[in-house]
Task: structure prediction
Amino acid sequence: MSSARPYRHGNLPAALLAAAREILDENGLHAVGLRETARRVGVSATAAYRHFTSKEDLLASLAAEGFHDLAGAMEKATRGATPLTRAGLAYIEFAHQNRGLFRLMFGPVLAERAKYPTLQAATLEVEGFLLQGVADLDRRPLDDNHAAMAAWGLVHGLAHLIVDGFFPAEQAALRAEEILAKIRLPKPVASDPPP
Result:
């Protein structure tokens, strides 16, 4: 565990988020709080409260950062052959490498994402990549897009199985790639005729 270190640089919110992520990785969600995070950075709790109004606000910002990182990993992975499969593997790898953060991002603590516009926008980035991946099959929004929901459900389910230890860590990527390679997405949805 890291000891408190004096805060010396100019971006306190970023330092607090980094410390919160360390605490999350080391001790789990229950251990993350503004006081502990501030102590880890070496500032007063009052200083932390100037940037985050509550523990939930800190967690929402941390989850938004996670969604941005996940979207970035998916975007990078989609360059090349089989972009939807590559994006799915990037999603699974992200979950595997960031277990605590992944659980926070999709867990019940932040189920009301609309309360946090930054978190909501970051979530939509990931949804956008899923829709982009199935755009040739079905261009409807995610909540009415069976192909995108099926793809996301499969990848998300595999990610959770890996995060929860049902696949050994050393086999996770290989098993996920084998499963995703066998997937057949639904046939394209017929478009409505023009009026």
In short: Residues 55-77 form the longest helix (23 residues). Residues 56-181 form a domain with the Tetracycline Repressor; domain 2 fold (CATH 1.10.357.10).
